[in-house]
Amino acid sequence: QSNGIGFIRLHIPWPILSREAELQKIKVAVKKVRRLIVICASSSLILFPCAVYFITNSYYLEIFTLIVCLGFLQLLHEEWANYGVMHKYQPVDLIRKYFGEQIGLYFAWLGVYTQLLIPPSVLGFIVFLYGIFTVDTNVPSQETCNDNLNITMCPLCDGVCDYWRLSSVCSLARTSYLFDNGATVLFAIFMSLWAACFLEHWKRRQMCLKHTWDLTSLEDEEVLSEELRPEYEETLQEKKDKLKAKSKKKVSYRSLFSDTTFIFVTFSAVFGVAVYRICMLSVWSMNPDPEAKASVRMTVTTTGIILNMLVVLVLEEVYGAIAVWLTELELPKTKEEFEERLIFKSFFLKSMNAFAPIFYVAFFKGRFAGRPGDYVYVFGDYRMEECAPPGCLIELCIQLSMIMLGKQLIQNNVFEVLIPKLKKMYRTIQEQKGKKRAAEDEENEIEERRPKQQFDKDFTLEPFEGVTPEYMEMIIQYGFVSLFVASFPLAPAFALLNNVIEIRLDAAKFVTEIRRPDAVRCKDIGIWYNILCGISKFSVITNAFVISFTSEFVPRMVYQYMYSVNGTMNGYTEHSLSYFNVSNFPPGTAPNTTLISGVSMCRYKDYRDPPWAPDAYTFSKQYWSVLAAKLAFVIFFQNLAMFLSMLVAWMIPDVPRSLREQLKKENMMLMEFLLNQDQEPFAKSHGPRRSLPSHSLPRTRRWHLHPHIRHSLRRSTRGPRSPEPPVNCSR
Predict the structure, then answer these.
(1) CB–CB of 457/514 below 8 Å?
(2) How many whole angstroms separate alpha carbon 280 and alpha carbon 286?
(3) The Anoctamin transmembrane domain covers which part of the protein (predicted)?
(4) Half-sphere exposure of 445 (CA within 13 A, CB side)
């Protein structure tokens, strides 16, 4: 068409194909084979041309041709992109044949990750059930709910807030125990071991796939491509040497400044939500309704968490574009370098955005609030927010569950389903408008009456944007599952449920919603594995600090074994609350009106000396004892988890035994074949001759061998006649 979208059929000459095959490290046969031209009949489900594959028999190196006409798409519809087969394994070999190794490895990794989420999901559910069945026997919860203790707590804000009874947070204390009990500590240690097992299991699975998909020589023989990016070459041509050096320094400073700026934006958003909660607590506490005042803490917490979730979702979309802009400022030389820097920046910004609200609640909220009579204020008039008497763990649990579930549900239903459909609808409407404007003469009218070709239908599909967004979503989820699992044991179960649906949702998207991507050969999942290792190691530290400083586990143990009279938890609530004389309130901070009369002392959550002590309101001996126990537990937990993780990694070999045996057999057969082939010309011209050692083969003959054969031959010449297994296959 002269106007609108047109399609051009291109012919690629054989030299161009050969050059691209060389650049992509595509293997060729040892012997010459006759080229075969295949024409496949099209059908309604065949969206793309047929593919011709060459299969090599490892015994005789005979070449067979297998013509794969795209019944592939039909099989992918039935066996993969179908919610009725959610209980079955993915056809990863079929995915690899149709989409290429890069996408095949992604779905293989996602399948392994989802499968290994089953044990922690079951155990986390058991931990949750343990909390349900033992909550009635938990002494601190019973003491919190006991109205007879008549414990009066200090106001939550200045002036407008009233005194309140500790028993009013009874339900919060009971709910907190469901996730803050002794079993949670064992579950956190188990998750550290699970992370190590997951990484080792994936390495073994990846080695098997590399062997099955013939990717071993891609790792051993490839020379890293140093092709410069066009943007980089253009910049080099435009600038002189001095200007180039200055621009590099300028770009580095700009990039560093930009990174710092956007980190500041993330923490500013978290601080803004915290200020919102502080202000709303004071405003809603003015409500004269007693029932509204009783639920003001939960109302403020819930609305603040929802606001945090919305901020996370909005900033995540913004940070994706910002990461591309920052990477382009750095002007990387090669495409590989560009991709790695882009992935790292995207992960850094998006992870900071997703985890910053959770880190605030876990490690900062209530730590710098001060005490009655000496509170810390923001903007002069608003007190820093405090944790509830049962601790901040329950709020951390709610925050984690809301962000994790909300993020997954909204991303799955809106960003991955609704938005692509809207984009497709918009492109279709724009195309129809263009055709109407173009249909002015008779020739165009004839063109309009032609039936719509398959390439027209394919063009309306969503363009493929790479597997980076898919990896990013799952890696952030892995962070939710591992970093703060001590506060929310049900996180693996929710992740498992999401991934079972996510696999089929992504399958349907790849098969029906996006254009077929170009096949990309790669030997592994790349930098994502390093990110997974970093998250796994960092999760040990975060869980240790969550158990020590956010939960009540360590203070309870200190009380039971150091301060309890009878070795039980009786009296723990009284022990964990400090006294404050209401006459010591600064002017204007005491409650203006109160429904609780006769209050001379109020209580607050801290370990401080009472007002009648010589050093009133200073940290007590119990505070320093608890702090020492917390730090000791962090060191013990971290070293124990790290040791067990390293032990698991050492005990599990990277290569399965069956694969090692298979590699040995293949090396032996390859050597026998080469020796037999070398003896044939000598036997014809000089008669029978004894076998030659492998290192005596002509140098030119060895150099022009198939890469995999050359790799095996090189290894066999290093040792005895019987070749050893590859070095990376055994410890």
Answers:
(1) no
(2) 10
(3) 95-666
(4) 3
φ, ψ for residue 579, nearest 5 deg: -100, 150
Closest to 189 measured CA to CA, from 648, 652, 557, 515: 648
| 69 pLDDT higher than 50 | no
Cβ atoms of residues 730 and 655 within 8 Å: yes
Ramachandran class of 214: left when φ > 0, alpha when ψ lies in -120 to 50, beta otherwise: left
Residue in the structure block whose two tokens are 């404050």? 580
Which pLDDT belongs to residue 529? Answer: 92
At residue 250 the predicted structure's pLDDT band, cuts being 50, 70 and 90, is very low
**At which residue do the structure tokens 């956190």 appear?**
188
Helix, strand, or coil (residue 8) = coil
pLDDT value, residue 433? 73
Please name every residue paired with 492 in a beta bridge, in sequence order, or none if there are none: none
How far is the CA of 234 from the CAs of 133, 247, 248, 439, 453, in angstroms?
A: 68, 14, 14, 41, 39
Query: From CA 207, how far away is CA 652, in angstroms rounded?
Result: 13
Residue count of the chain:
731
- What 34-40 contacts at long range (C-beta under 8 Å, 24+ apart), as own/partner pairs, is 36/65, 36/67, 38/67, 38/69, 40/67, 40/69, 40/70
Q: Are the beta carbons of 644 and 428 closer than 8 angstroms? A: no
Query: Whole-angstrom Cα distance, residue 639 to residue 632?
Result: 11
Query: Is residue 225 scored above 50 in pLDDT?
Result: no
Q: What is the pLDDT of residues 574-626, one digit of tens each?
A: 899 999 998 888 888 888 888 888 888 999 999 999 999 888 889 999 999 99
Q: Within 10 A of 521 (CB to CB), how many other CB atoms are there? A: 15
> Given 3-state DSSP classes, what are the helix, strand and coil percentages for the chain, each rounded to the nearest 5?
65, 5, 30
CB 342 within 8 A of CB 324: yes
pLDDT of residue 78: 83
d(CA 244, CA 644): 50
- The rounded distance, in Å, linking the Cα atoms of 391 and 687 is 90
Q: What is the pLDDT of residue 720?
A: 39
Q: Could you list the beta-strand ranges (E) of 408-565.
A: none
Name the amino acid, one letter, at 291: E
Most distant CA atoms of the chain, gap in Å = 118
Alpha carbon of 220 to those of 209, 215, 708: distances in Å?
A: 15, 9, 9
Contact of 385 with 140, CB cutoff 8 Å: no
Rounded Cα distance, 559 and 577, in Å: 13
Segment among 278-287, 473-482, 609-618 with least mean pLDDT: 278-287
Question: What's the CA gap between 211 and 167, in Å, rounded?
Answer: 63
d(CA 442, CA 729): 69
Token reading at 161: 């807030």
- 674 contacts 692 by C-beta, under 8 angstroms: no
Q: At what angle do helices 393-410 and 170-179 cross, to 10 degrees?
A: 70
Read off the tokens for 156.
Answer: 């939550």
To the nearest whole percent, how much of the chain has pLDDT over 90? 17
CB of 667 within 8 A of CB of 712? yes
- Residues near 366 by beta carbon (within 8 Å), at least 6 away in sequence: 384, 385, 386, 387, 392
Find all residues with CB under 8 Å of 193, minimum gap 6, and list them: 641, 644, 645, 648
Three-state secondary structure along 224-262? CCCCECHHHHHHHHHCCHHHHHHHHHHHHHHHHHHHHHH
Rounded CA separation 575/569 (Å): 10
- Distance between CA atoms of residues 683 and 506, nearest Å: 59
Nearest to 375 by CA among 143, 47, 181, 604: 604
Say if CB 431 and CB 458 are below 8 A apart: no
Q: What are φ and ψ of residue 374, in 5° steps?
A: -150, 55
Instruction: Tell me the DSSP string of 467-486.
Output: SHHHHHHHHHHHHHHHHTTT
Report the candidate in 146, 134, 129 with the shortest Cα–Cα distance to residue 572. Answer: 146
